[in-house]
Design a protein that fits this description.
The chain is mainly α. The chain has eleven helices and no strands.
Length: 248
């Protein structure tokens, strides 16, 4: 497959799954903007502005994770209701190009929320180039983690209602309940161990340390990165080995 063909396949996924919907149903963009910003506003009000930096990076993490998980319901909808995956399987398109296009479409779809969060970060987060690169690395890793999880769930889902239920459940469990919008120290000691069951906790801890709102030792920071990378690789391994691209 040449680069032009690969680009066209990826672009087709973006057009089908985000651009078309954004053009024809702009009201749906409100959900992508309000979901991360609603928690941000709540945390800022409750903390009287003290946790605004944590809330902004938390909004980024929630957006990136929710984007990948949203892939699960979108893929399931297109596969089961429109039989799009059957058509793609019978075409020269590869599973990698198809999933890449669909995954990037989720970023395009959530671009209004990411733009608002980006503007807020310019005003309230003072970070150098290295810190920004590390933060982008955390967000990219979080997105890849959720994409692998979303793709795997989509291949086993047989109904759009089930897919939406899984999507909402995953978003709540991994991006709302864990300490994403605030430091983990706000959680009472006995319950912190439960928070560490979620990869978003490690991502938030790294992000908060990078922007200087929270401090962990270099060894603990390395541990956070290690856990995050291992989880991402493990989920991609499961996605490659257990997901179903072609029907048996």
């Amino acid at each position: 497959m040449n680069l032009k063909s690969l680009f066209n396949q990826v672009a087709a996924g973006i057009l089908v799954n985000s651009v078309y919907e954004m053009q024809n149903y702009p009201i749906v963009l409100l959900n992508t903007v309000l979901s991360p910003l609603s928690f941000l506003i709540l945390i800022v009000f409750v903390s009287r502005g003290e946790l605004i930096q944590d809330a902004i990076v938390g909004g980024f993490i929630m957006s990136m994770f929710s984007n990948g998980i949203a892939l699960q319901s979108d893929l399931s909808h297109l596969k089961n209701d429109f039989k799009l995956q059957d058509m793609v399987v019978s075409s020269p398109a590869t599973a990698g190009a198809y999933v890449a296009g669909m995954a990037l479409s989720e970023l395009v779809y959530s671009s209004p929320a990411l733009l608002v969060l980006g503007l807020l970060s310019v005003f309230f987060i003072k970070a150098g180039i290295v810190s920004i690169l590390l933060l982008l690395g955390v967000l990219a890793t979080m997105f890849l983690t959720s994409v692998a999880l979303g793709f795997t769930l989509a291949t086993f889902s047989s109904d759009i209602v089930q897919s939406f239920a899984f999507s909402r459940l995953m978003s709540t469990v991994f991006s709302t309940l864990p300490p994403v919008y605030y430091p983990i120290t706000f959680i009472p000691e006995p319950y912190r161990y439960l928070a560490y069951l979620s990869p978003t906790t490690y991502a938030a801890q790294i992000a908060q340390t990078v922007i200087g709102s929270y401090y962990v030792s270099p060894s603990l920071l390395s541990f956070d990165w290690t856990v995050l990378i291992i989880v991402t690789v493990a989920l991609f391994f499961v996605a490659l080995k257990k997901s179903k691209w072609r029907e048996d």
